[in-house]
Amino acid sequence: MPRPETESVVGWAIDAVRAMDVVEPLIVDLCTGSGAIALAMAQEVPRSRVHAVELSADALKWTRKNVEGSRVELRQGDARDAFPELDGQVDLVISNPPYIPLTEWEYVAPEARDYDPELALFSGEDGLDLIRSIERTAHRLLRPGGVVVVEHADTQGGLVPWIFTEERGWADAADHPDLNNRPRFATARKALP
Length: 193
Ligand SMILES: C[S@@+](CC[C@H](N)C(=O)[O-])C[C@H]1O[C@@H](n2cnc3c(N)ncnc32)[C@H](O)[C@@H]1O
Fold this sequence. Notes:
Blueprint: H1 4-20, E1 26-30, H2 36-44, E2 49-54, H3 57-67, E3 72-76, E4 90-95, H4 110-113, H5 118-121, H6 129-141, E5 142-151, E6 170-177, E7 183-190
Bound molecules: S-adenosylmethionine (SAM).
S-adenosylmethionine binds at residues 2, 6, 31-34, 36-37, 53-56, 59, 78-80, 96-98, 119-120, 130.
């Protein structure tokens, strides 16, 4: 199962895909890590086709075991240029990427800081480097009307929806709380032409 913070992200995504009324929804999970999000989507949206990408070879050893026997198509690669063959076709892009600002290194819980790889935690000075790249990847992958959902730190709720602007081809950008009512994930819809 995803972490409790991520559960609300996955719950929102499941509802969004079900509401689309697409027979075999195409779903992409960027930065899949253990594969928990991709597996939850495949399980809860029975006829979905789920593709997942992860950069770390070390993480992938476990991910491969986790997704064995499931419908998740796993690939090693970079979220920034992943799945060019799916451009313009995807119904939903979901991601729980690294998002901790490097400036907050000293405040991160020691059990995470000392044992989780840096690649899984940090993303530039303000923590938003990869989310900015995911915005471009999601826009490339989604069909018009498709949606993106991205988890972020509880301090970033006022920032992330502003990455998904109308000028960059998005509509309905919004932020949402987690189960503890803390700002936790942003969503947006790829604008229709
Ligand atoms: C915060 S962890 C989240 C893992 C998983 N999505 C989850 O919710 O449990 C972020 C993951 O992103 C991966 N990652 C970091 N940069 C990446 C990139 N450029 N492309 C693909 N994966 C990346 C890390 O290796 C790590 O597994």
